[in-house]
Amino acid sequence: PGFIKEHNASLTGGNKWLRRYVGASYSNNESYVKGNAYTRVGMRGNFDFIVTKQIKISLNTSWTRGINKRVPAAWAGGIGDAMSNALPIYPVYNDDKTYFRNGTSNPVFRHQVKQKPASVFCLASGDTPRLAYQLFAEAVLKEEVDVSGCTFIGLDEWLGIPSDNEGSCASFFQRYLTAPLHLPAQQWLLFDAMATDARQQCTIMDEQIAAKGGIDLMLVGIGMNGHIGFNEPGSSIFSKTRLINLDNSTRISNSHEFQNITKVPRLALTMGISTILSAKRIALMAWGMKAPIVARSVEGQVTEQVPASILQQHNNCEFVVD
Ligand code: F6R
Question: Of 32, 52, 69, 124, which one is least surrounded by beta carbons within 10 A?
């Protein structure tokens, strides 16, 4: 058991010309795991100078400092890991905006490669899987797994965005997998978003997947509107790899990948729902604010209006959520 201690002190006062408030607070939340605590110290001051009946000058200042005392990461594993991951004192994000982690490498990937060294992975890009890829790359570099026989496929791509543009899915994979693992281009199947015939790109992709014997592990994220890949609401369960019109909500939520919203393409290339369903195993990852759409996808009716809900019909699909 731990204690939560809160201490506050303040001074108020003033006269006709000056009103003042000075306050200080101290809070210490011990957790139920020994060695963990969150401490916050804060100070605030407000001063109002009444110069004339019409003129008032205000000065407001505040300062807060939070200190996280955590168990060391090496403690990860077993029940301790489960408990420490559940602790409310952990931040969701690190300072560089990546997700905070208190674990080691991702068992889903490792297991897949160990079971089948020539596995075919189809991967989403985006904020959600970034850490999983980093952990996977770390495991590969530590030689826990050998991916030299694997094929990696990009799930989707923004139309008209060259692969060296930072916003492209191709450059995302380059940063988190290809560069750290020195993966040769032959191990990747990616859409050419600059090709003159985008539709032909889709046919080529489907043919290449078939030639590889299908997808072994499909890793998808989920949009706030329930999209998987770029299959926006209304996408048919029979849809194949194709060119799609993006919802504005998708463009807005991805605008941080580009200079501004006007630079976010209106069209994208994506595996279709039927292509996704053809994978032997599917893992959907989602964190935090995706909870309502995850609930609709898992517990709601199967509907093309919530594309992720169609995954209920797959017999080897898991949702990995926080
Ligand atoms: C991206 C993709 C999308 C994302 C989804 C969630 O390749 O297929 O479906 O997975 O939009 O994006 P994040 O993870 O950035 O919240």
Answer: 52
